[in-house]
Design brief:
single chain; about 130 residues; alpha+beta; Immunoglobulin-like; five-stranded mixed β-sheet; three-stranded antiparallel β-sheet; 2 helices; globular
Length: about 130
């Protein structure tokens, strides 16, 4: 009986992920989502919650885990109106994507990007405020 129990424990240990990153990649979902002024080497350089209107372009970055082969959409909204929908096909267990929007200086107020899954469900959303430059 002890041999069977030892073998069972060994099988569980072999099946466990070795690193925390492996666990993150196996857990489906959005690991990160943020607005940024630029993406360099597939990473956002800043995290924007407020943007002055003398800057007219903003990017939305998202890092997906465990969603390989699933379509995903970044839905850009301003004042409750959909302004753009950018669709992506997730190509691996960890997949980073970005979309961007050119803004008009008079489009002040709250902007929102929703991350929408294949079933049309919002799985994450972020907002930023476009403000008058000082």
């Amino acid at each position: 009986m002890k041999k069977n129990f030892s073998l069972f424990v060994l099988i569980l240990l072999i099946d466990m992920p070795l690193y925390a990153d492996e666990q993150d990649e196996m857990t489906p979902g959005i690991a990160r989502a943020q607005f940024t002024t630029v993406v360099v080497d597939r990473e956002p350089v800043d995290d924007i919650t407020e943007l002055p209107n003398n800057i007219t372009k903003i990017h939305f970055f998202s890092d997906q885990r465990g969603m390989k082969d699933q379509p995903l959409t970044h839905r850009w909204e301003y004042n409750g109106k959909v302004m753009a929908e950018i669709k992506f096909e997730i190509g691996g267990p960890r997949w980073r994507v970005k979309s961007s929007k050119n803004l008009l200086p008079n489009q002040l107020g709250k902007w929102k990007v929703s991350i929408v899954d294949w079933a049309g469900e919002v799985i994450a959303e972020k907002t930023f405020t476009y403000i008058e430059a000082k």
